[in-house]
Design a protein that fits this description.
Length: 703
């Protein structure tokens, strides 16, 4: 008999036939009529838990913006903390020294630890999964770690949680059958290893049902896991890509297959309506970051819908968020005050909203439990499911007009900037310019540079192409564009394998590494940096993909002094600060040097700028200049080609600036660069007027 059966082995796997109580001593109190909703009690090393229960997420051993005291006051009873994050920082040694998380963070209630599987899942390009576990590189210090079923349990023992989770392979819920089946089988083998690794620990251990959105896989997974001596079972792999209806369907399908005498935990779910719907389908436990995440964004849940506290309609309001709420925030503070805090980006606003949102969740959970115990859940459910999907009915939304605010994190001339849409960018303090101000940095990098240049298809080997593709990344900044290219390479590599791919050389130019250093220190704000490569670039100026097919190097210093010595590019992602902040990088002389250096190739330069001055500089430098795609509120960007054929063969058939543009330029107030003397003007004018792009009808017609 395998050594892990220190708990009695269950040989029969018939539904509801589990004969022995788990160490949690799970006791079902009531099942509701006409619904699968249920109320129960179980015991942990740190006290009793009544279900249904909601667990706030304390990612870094803290629920963001809250103290242990404020959390308890809202009704929080069980905390979830993330093994992955605590493994990387502070690390197991610190937790062992403190005898576990409870003393370390001053929390005396039950704690559930996840296994780290989900965080690994969200690092798709910087980890490798095999039978042993997942090898990944730390975003904290760039070191490599192996997260295996055994090392995960070992870490969860060091954390000293009351409930541990077995490591699972989480995949997208929309994954195809074969992939979902392989991940499920691996999860099952890891489940058995996790049980062995638990040994005689008094901490409870839950298994995780996988199988994506495939009914028979979900059933098979539940049947396999309920035959093992777990103390509870979780439904994993939902809330990662499927629709709401699918989520509800599969939740119900899995709970049908789970034993009655074990707690059931739906991981990472959810919104208030998700919780209500899932309780109705027989789930007992939930966790989600939403209450504190929305608090950070200035959103309050109320009995009459969600309030956006940023909106100026609250500026003079003496009302509490919700007259029906008895939380500390509603008792003591007005909407006007919290509106002011949110607008001023004060942490107290986040804290007060967090208290209220958490209290809203716990009130909902208490009402749900009460209605189950009174066998009144079904009518409560019918009423509440309508109430929970309301929006702010007193103040219907108008298109938002929001100011931008900045956070305090700062390095050198740079600081982290929070856009109104709640993503982060880097801002240069002296110029006030924000890198990627309107769209999240990785979105803009993808659209404007990676997708528009068709990088993925250019990486594929074709007969008449050079074996190496060279990209210049001018203005590394916080590496959004470079990482978009790296991820594109990794996706293509995963799909096509090494044989079908060209070699990619990515050359980044940057004179000031403060923006990237600042961003890597705040990886929570910049998901595109959750990868080992940018750390290596900062340390050594070089990074290489394991296949050797991608080499990324940094040329530190002034771009202009490196132009002629760098490998001739095929693609240029031209993204330095604007011509106001850095005029030398946008003048005709610099562009002419780039053009001349690139002439042996048919090269393409992509840039966010669509200004007449920049386009004129590109034209006088010799480039053929076309309109690029719009990104968000920018209706227009620019692509410049060294050869006219480049534009004609481009899959998007971009429109070369034609005679209309020329006519507008002739009338333009900024027709000449300010640096141009009066004597130079006629020559300059002639350069533009006689550019081949405007001479031949065939060029004008490429539009
Ligand atoms: Zn409140």
């Amino acid at each position: 008999m395998p050594e892990y059966f220190s708990y009695p082995q269950i040989s029969t796997v018939r539904k509801n036939s589990r004969p022995l109580k788990s160490p949690l001593n799970f006791t079902l109190e009531r099942e509701s009529s006409g619904s699968k909703a249920r109320a129960a009690i179980f015991q942990t090393l740190h006290g009793e838990v009544k279900t249904p229960i909601f667990m706030p997420v304390g990612t870094q051993a803290t629920v963001k913006g809250q103290t242990v005291e404020s959390l308890k006051a809202t009704g929080a009873r069980v905390l979830l903390v993330n093994t992955y994050h605590l493994l990387l920082r502070p690390g197991p040694e610190v937790l062992k020294k403190f005898g576990g998380i409870h003393r370390f963070m001053n929390w005396d209630g039950p704690v559930l630890t996840d296994s780290g599987g989900f965080q690994i899942f969200s690092l798709p390009h910087s980890r490798e999964i095999n039978e042993d576990g997942a090898r990944f590189q730390s975003y904290v210090d760039g070191k490599f770690y192996l997260l295996s079923p055994e090392s995960s349990i070992e870490m969860q023992k060091a954390i000293g949680s009351d409930i541990m989770m077995a490591l699972d392979q989480c995949i997208l819920s929309t994954a195809p059958y074969a992939q979902a089946e392989a991940a499920m089988d691996l999860t099952h083998r890891w489940a058995e290893r996790s049980l062995r690794a638990r040994g005689d620990s008094p901490q409870a251990l839950f298994g995780i049902v996988q199988g994506a959105c495939h009914q028979d896989l979900r059933k098979k997974s539940a049947a396999f896991l309920r035959a093992l001596p777990f103390d509870g079972l979780a439904i994993g792999g939902l809330a990662v890509g499927e629709t709401h209806l699918q989520r509800y369907e599969f939740t119900g399908l899995v709970t049908e297959q789970l034993p009655q005498n074990l707690p059931r935990y739906l991981m990472g779910v959810g919104t208030p309506i998700d919780i209500l719907e899932s309780v109705h389908r027989g789930v007992d436990m939930f966790d989600c970051i939403i209450p504190s995440q929305l608090a950070q964004r200035g959103v309050a849940f109320t009995s009459h819908g969600k309030l956006q506290l940023r909106r100026s309609v609250h500026k003079f309001s003496e009302e509490p968020f919700d007259a029906q709420c008895d939380c500390q925030t509603c008792k003591q503070y007005s909407r006007a005050y919290v509106h002011h805090l949110v607008k001023s980006d004060e942490i107290l606003g986040w804290h007060l909203l967090g208290i209220h949102n958490m209290a809203f969740y716990y009130r909902l959970i208490r009402e749900i439990r009460k209605s189950i115990l009174q066998d009144d859940f079904l009518s409560y459910y019918e009423k509440k499911r309508i109430e929970l999907v309301r929006s702010d009915e007193e103040n219907p939304a108008r298109p938002p007009k929001e100011a931008k605010t900045s956070r305090s994190a700062r390095l050198g001339d740079y600081e982290i900037h929070t856009a109104a849409r709640s993503f982060y960018s880097i801002r240069q303090v002296s110029s006030g310019e924000v890198m990627h101000s309107v769209n999240p940095p990785s979105d803009e990098a993808n659209k404007l540079y990676v997708e528009q240049s068709f990088l993925a298809s250019r990486l594929l080997k074709r007969e008449i192409q050079a074996d190496e593709l060279v990209i210049w990344d001018v203005g590394l900044g916080a590496a959004a564009n470079a990482m978009a290219a790296v991820r594109c390479f990794e996706r293509t590599y995963a799909e096509k394998g090494a044989n079908g791919l060209r070699h990619l050389r990515l050359v980044s130019f940057e004179w000031d590494l403060d923006p990237l250093t600042l961003a890597t220190k705040n990886p929570g704000c910049f998901p595109h940096l959750r990868h080992g490569a940018p750390f290596r670039i900062l340390e050594t100026g070089k990074w290489q993909h394991t296949s050797n097919l991608l080499q990324w190097e940094l040329l530190k210093g002034d771009f202009r002094s490196a132009i002629e010595s760098a490998n001739i590019p095929d693609l240029i992602f031209y993204d330095p600060f604007s011509s106001k902040a850095d005029p030398a990088l946008w003048n005709a002389e610099t562009f002419a040097r780039i053009f001349k250096h690139c002439l042996p190739k048919s090269a393409e330069l992509y840039t966010y700028s669509a200004s007449t001055a920049v386009r004129v500089s590109l034209l006088t430098a010799g480039f053929f200049v076309a309109e690029g795609i719009g990104t968000g509120p920018k209706s227009d960007t620019t692509i410049a080609f060294t050869r006219a054929t480049g534009a004609r063969n481009h899959p998007l058939s971009p429109r070369l600036l034609g005679r209309e543009w020329l006519a507008r330029w002739r009338r333009s107030g900024s027709k000449f660069p300010t640096t141009l003397s009066n004597e130079e003007r006629p020559h300059f004018e002639e350069l533009i007027e006689t550019h081949r792009q405007f001479l031949s009808d065939s060029f004008a017609k490429s539009s």
